[in-house]
Specification:
The complex is a heterodimer of chains A (218) and B (250). With 218 residues, chain A is an alpha/beta fold. Chain A contains 5 helices and 11 strands. A 7-stranded mixed β-sheet of chain A has the order 5-4-8-9-1-10-11, with helices on both faces. Chain A has a two-stranded antiparallel ribbon with strand order 2-3. Chain B is globular. The N terminus of chain B is likely disordered. The chains are: A alpha/beta (218), B alpha/beta (250).
Chain lengths: 218, 250
């Protein structure tokens, strides 16, 4: 039986409100959808995909945010698995984001070493009591042990809700490589209920495990 | 898909039903010309070229939702497709489908009746009609809406066309809804391609709850969403999804 970490340090760059009604919240939902679908933006004469755009903005803003210590050439990025098994040649947003971050020089390498072998419900749109707990995530994941020799690992996802996926993924990485320093990063954190004031809202915080549930601060 | 091949009419009957029609005014495009540069995932099954007749501006406007399902649909299935396409079209969503008999035709007709836009993605070249009874509908769509085919005018129609066409519907749509489909329906290839592209796939509650079907559970496990009311589509899909963001969103 695998064991979960009791605490995980995390950072997030953007905020999104799945149920908010203000204009910025509505815009935030479009950003998340386009991030997940690798959609194209047309900024001036430049066509750029949302994951590349978001990572580019992260690079530009990094020094003004508390996120800088999470990144560096010695950091290995591990994409968190999707909530459902990946179809053959299917799009994996977290891996897409990791590759954009490596290309932007935010990290040294990308290691897609944790895979989903069974499905769990999606977080952002499932009701509180239906959301899968970190232990259920853990049971549905597998790690490739022999690949990783990194000392600093950043587990990366597109969106963090309660942090159960990040915590379960980080726990597996920790189990396989107990000496590595492991932190987590999501491009977007979910704000629910209510609205987001600004999509650009970088923060650092903690995901904690209490009584089997994960709690994210902030 | 076995169903797509198996339920096609025998060759002679097919030839009769697929009589040649007068040449249509069509143009060929690279997929990138119509959709913008494709992503790596999109490129895998994308057609090499697309022939289009009608209003290509329908691809640069609002959100595009595919409404697809069985050719041999139940009366309830047809009513559900009509209600959904009507709801979407009235809100400015362009309704895509495959112009097959059954669910597809009901979706196109409902979108037109609602005064909305519709796109037919054909499994035949634009100069052929299948099934023949959809001739008037195809002509209306090719002149006042948009008809698209990845098969060159004059080319032979093969059963495998329809699976390729189904994947192309997934590529062209921002989201897809399967209204009604059996275990061997061609709509399933469309659904799996939508999931592979990471896009929204909705399954009507009526198919999710049909105890005879196994595919809905498999698709839900891979990220499909159960749809219990037409409004549910717009809970997930922005109405302006068809227009690329031009101002930096953050």
């Amino acid at each position: 039986m695998s064991r979960l970490l009791s605490e995980l340090e995390f950072g997030a760059f953007l905020a999104y409100a799945p149920h908010g009604t203000e204009a910025e919240s509505i815009r935030s939902r479009r950003v998340v959808r386009e991030l997940k679908e690798d959609r194209l933006l047309q900024i001036g004469t430049t066509a750029i995909r949302m994951p590349d755009f978001a990572v580019q903005r992260l690079g530009e803003e990094l020094k003004r945010t508390p996120l800088e210590p999470l990144f560096g050439a010695d950091v290995t990025l591990v994409p968190a698995p999707r909530s459902s098994p990946l179809p053959k040649h299917g799009l994996w947003p977290a891996l897409r984001i990791c590759e954009a971050m490596r290309a932007a020089g935010l990290a040294g390498e990308v290691l897609a070493c944790v895979a989903r072998v069974a499905a769990v419900a999606k977080s952002a749109h499932s009701k509180g009591q239906d959301r899968p707990k970190a232990s259920q995530h853990l049971e549905s994941l597998r790690v490739e042990r022999e690949l990783l020799a990194a000392s600093r690992v950043l587990v990366v996802d597109d969106v963090v809700t309660r942090g159960a996926t990040l915590l379960a993924t980080a726990s597996l990485v920790h189990e396989a490589f107990p000496k590595a320093e492991i932190r987590a990063f999501a491009l977007v954190r979910t704000i629910s209920p209510g609205d987001v004031e600004k999509i650009l809202d970088p923060c650092r915080g903690v995901i904690e495990l209490r009584g089997g549930d994960t709690f994210r601060r902030p | 898909m076995p169903g797509t091949l198996g339920t096609l009419a025998p060759r002679a009957a097919r030839r009769r039903r697929m009589a040649p029609r007068p040449p249509v005014h069509s143009r060929s495009f690279l997929p990138d010309e119509l959709l913008g540069p494709l992503s790596e995932a999109e490129r895998i099954h994308a057609p090499k070229a697309l022939w289009a007749s009608g209003r290509t501006d329908l691809l640069r406007d609002g959100a595009r939702v595919a409404v697809v399902g069985s050719r041999r649909a139940s009366a309830l299935g047809l009513a559900r497709a009509t209600r959904l396409a009507d709801y979407l079209a009235r809100r400015g969503v362009v309704v895509l489908s495959g112009l097959a008999a059954g669910i597809d035709s009901a979706a196109h007709r409902a979108a037109i009746t609602a005064g909305g836009g519709t796109i037919a993605v054909l499994g035949t070249p634009l100069d052929r009609v299948y099934p023949a009874e959809n001739r008037a509908l195809q002509e209306e769509i090719a002149s006042r809406h948009l008809a698209i085919s990845e098969f060159a005018p004059g080319s032979t129609v093969r059963p495998s066309n329809f699976v390729r066409r189904n994947r192309t519907i997934a590529l062209l749509a921002h989201a897809s809804v399967i209204v009604e489909a059996g275990e061997s329906s061609g709509s399933l290839s469309q659904g799996w391609e939508t999931l592979r592209l990471g896009r929204l796939l909705f399954l009507l509650s009526s198919v999710v709850r049909d105890p005879r079907l196994r595919w809905p559970a498999q698709m839900l496990e891979h990220g499909a969403i159960e749809l219990s009311r037409p409004e549910g589509v717009l809970d997930h899909l922005p109405l302006d999804a068809g227009r690329p963001l031009v101002a930096p969103p953050f």
